[in-house]
Write a structure and sequence with these properties.
This protein is an alpha+beta fold and about 500 residues long. Bound molecules: flavin-adenine dinucleotide.
């Protein structure tokens, strides 16, 4: 075996999760490399359809949300049991989702990563690894290997890293199977969704716009086909013939389907890695959790895994924190994906076409008629309600820091601007100059500012204005208090490492 080179962190897989993680690590000055099987970032087919509110906020925290917003379509896409979950009155700068195909999301993310110091091994794949006390030998084809302190498997649902680590992937086998394709059609197809005894099917142009809240497809161009299959469990790759037969079974014609650029299959298989960490090997994104696309959560959850893990891994690699900090990654993110899995399974169950399910759908729709229930579901679907269990205290503790418009001695400032470099912030809204965090000054920014507006949290409503908040690089609040409240030094040490001696 030839050891090619060494990096602090090697990421297997440069999909959305791997790209986001690489960006986060590079921002923190970590020597990171991505090993990606695909020769370029090009992604055939469409896969994920967009970003939810919290993911847009996460990108805004790094100053790159606009790159996505200019290319996508702002929309209210949330729904559950047929009830629209409109978040336009939620207290966030981005009270909407963004329609943008995954191939564009990946291209834009890769553009950001290219501006940072990230090494790419494209057209290469991770074939195995061996970890020891000081690092991991990551195996590539032809007997080559790369040495790293940590290996992160962002290598998708069939993750080799997860399998090679022997990490269990418990869950549920599929109950539904769908074909998804991008094709040309010689005849004009019937665009839109169709429900029948088999399930839900859909035809749409790949290119579309949102006008007055409605999807308006382009007049021509490639068609995106989604068909529910009569059987679950096909093992061969789907072909144009399968697609043509499927179209005829549902629509009575295949509309002269030809020239596919992609044909693939997805199911509602639902599984989650039993642990997100095994020693020096970690999992994130689809490698850690898979589920049906209903609700559009997969890519969003993966990108947010990456932002939870990135700064923690950087601090461990840079020597600021002990490696026990990495255990908080599993502790915080496993429950989030477990809830996504549960809600997605409910989504899939509710799309069944029998009369009892119809009755259940109507019942749930009635319950969602209550504002509190509907807001709760909307906050969950948009990722705005995520609450890491950091103990008892102010409602902000463990929740996302809102992007407030602050006033500082140097002028107006948005909270998210403070997070662009991925560095933590102690935001003092009380008497200026009151806090002294000199022993952490090399790691934590101290900002004195004023904010006179209301403190409103999605679904929770107004909360008491805090005097000071400690904000982690991922935008979650690690401590809330004032000069008299104990625990700040403890929180700083827990999250950002031991104090530096003067
Ligand atoms: C039809 C459909 C619709 C969807 N809609 C949505 C949606 O609307 N919203 C949403 O949030 N999500 C959606 N998803 C889910 C979304 O596509 C995935 O959750 C997302 O791609 C996960 O990103 P990832 O980076 O974790 O994994 P992947 O995107 O699978 O990326 C893994 C990467 O690793 C590479 N790789 C794999 N094995 C190796 C190896 N051994 N060595 C090196 N590289 C390797 C692959 O080439 C790939 O680039 C949808 C999925 C489907 C199928």
């Amino acid at each position: 075996m030839t050891v090619m080179t060494e990096h602090a962190v090697v990421i297997a897989g440069g999909g959305p999760t791997g790209l986001m993680l690489a960006g986060e690590l590079a921002l923190a000055g970590v020597d990171v490399a991505i090993v990606e099987r695909r020769p370029s970032q090009d992604l055939p087919g469409s896969r994920a359809g967009g970003l939810h509110s919290r993911t847009i906020e996460i990108l805004d925290q790094r100053g790159i949300a606009d790159r996505f917003l200019v290319e996508g379509q702002v929309a209210q896409v949330g729904q559950f049991a047929g009830v629209r979950l409109d978040i336009s009155d939620f207290p966030t700068r981005h009270p909407y989702s963004l329609g943008l195909w995954q191939k564009h999301i990946e291209r834009i993310l890769a553009g950001w990563v290219d501006e940072l110091a990230v090494t790419f091994y494209r057209g290469r794949e991770v074939t195995g690894f061996a970890q020891d006390e000081t690092g991991v030998d990551v195996e590539l084809p032809d007997g080559q290997s790369v040495r790293a302190k940590y290996l992160v498997g962002c290598d998708g649902g069939r993750s080799l890293v997860r399998k090679a680590a022997g990490i269990e992937f418990p869950g549920w086998d599929p109950t539904t199977s769908n074909l998804i394709a991008e094709v040309e059609m010689t005849e004009e197809p019937e665009l839109g969704m169709r429900h029948d005894a088999l399930g839900v099917h859909g035809l749409g142009r790949v290119e579309y716009e949102i006008r007055d809240g409605e999807v308006v497809f382009a007049d021509n161009g490639p068609v995106r086909v989604m068909l529910t299959e009569p059987e679950v469990g096909a093992t061969s790759e789907p072909t144009l013939r399968d697609l043509s037969e499927g179209l005829i079974a549902v629509y009575g014609t295949d509309y002269g389907v030809h020239s596919p650029t992609s044909i693939s299959r997805f199911t509602d298989m639902t599984r989650q890695a039993a642990t997100y960490r095994q020693g020096r090997v970690l999992l994130a994104g689809d490698a850690a959790h898979v589920h049906a696309p209903d609700g559009g959560q997969g890519l969003n959850t993966g990108v947010q895994d990456a932002v939870n893990l990135g700064w923690k891994l950087a601090q461990v690699v840079n020597g600021a924190s002990a490696d026990g900090l990495l255990d908080t990654y599993h502790a915080e993110r496993h429950p989030v994906a477990a809830r996504v899995l549960r809600t997605t399974m409910a989504h899939v169950a509710l799309r069944r076409q029998d009369e009892r399910t119809e009755a259940l759908r109507e019942t749930i729709a009635e319950l969602l008629g209550a504002d509190e229930a509907r807001n709760g579901f909307a906050a969950m679907g948009s990722g705005l309600d995520i609450h890491y269990d950091l103990g008892e205290g102010h409602p902000l503790l463990g929740r996302r820091m809102p992007d407030l418009d602050l006033v500082t001695a140097d002028g107006p400032l948005r909270v998210f601007t403070l997070l662009h470099d991925g560095r933590p912030v102690l935001l003092n809204l009380g008497e200026p100059g009151g806090f002294d965090i000199a022993p952490w000054a090399d790691r934590v920014q101290l900002i004195d500012a004023k904010y006179d507006g209301a403190w409103e949290l999605p679904a929770l409503g107004t909360v008491t204005a805090p005097s000071a908040v400690l904000i982690r690089p991922d935008g979650y609040v690690a401590w809330v208090g004032d000069l008299t409240r104990p625990g700040l030094a403890e929180a700083l040490t827990t999250w950002f490492g031991a104090p530096t001696a003067a």
